[in-house]
Design brief:
By secondary structure, the protein is an alpha+beta fold. It is 22% helix and 31% strand. The protein has one domain. β5 and β6 form a beta hairpin.
């Protein structure tokens, strides 16, 4: 009987060690870069949508906006969404988030959220002036340029190191 109790105890310990936990990766500034959600981890609520993720997990500012990039889905059970980050209507190059769902439930989120503050997004020159400067820089006549698009884009500095943060288990 004693051996049976010990065997059951060992099996319970082994079984509990296989329970998965939600894993968070943050950059050196403490900004969340990826989350691998676990349905077994009751300490973390899995967001039902990207909007809830932005609000509750990233805690984005009112000046930030994430715009969804439409993509075709090949499989019905797996859905992948990508959002690009904008600050006061200006796209931040390289910033955005991707979300992965299985059967309608988010299981992985990753990306690059840039915390921006106090940047004036009003262009200091017109689109035509930008084209004129481009023509001079490239040493081509302005008349050779038939059409142009002037777009204001913000490019963040590269992030430093990435730190792995695994939430400690509260199991006894």
């Amino acid at each position: 009987m004693k051996k049976l109790v010990i065997a059951v105890f060992i099996m319970m310990i082994t079984w509990s060690s296989f329970a998965q936990e939600t894993i968070l990766y943050k950059n050196a500034n403490g900004v969340l870069e990826s989350v691998e959600f676990s349905a077994d981890d009751k300490r973390v609520t899995i967001p039902a949508s990207a909007e809830i993720f932005f609000k509750e997990m990233l805690k984005v500012k009112p000046t930030d906006e994430f715009r969804k990039i439409m993509r075709r889905q090949k499989q019905k059970e797996f859905v992948h969404e990508h959002y690009e980050q904008y600050y006061n209507g200006v796209k931040i190059e390289g910033a955005g988030y991707s979300f992965h769902y299985k059967n309608g439930k988010m299981y992985f989120a990753h990306g690059h959220y840039v915390v921006v503050s106090d940047i004036n997004t009003k262009p200091s020159i017109t689109g035509h002036a930008a084209m004129t400067h481009f023509a001079k820089y490239k040493n081509i006549p302005e008349k050779a340029i038939n059409d142009y698009i002037a777009e204001l884009i913000s490019k963040p500095p590269p992030s430093k190191t990435v730190a792995l943060i695994k939430q400690p288990s509260k199991r006894g």
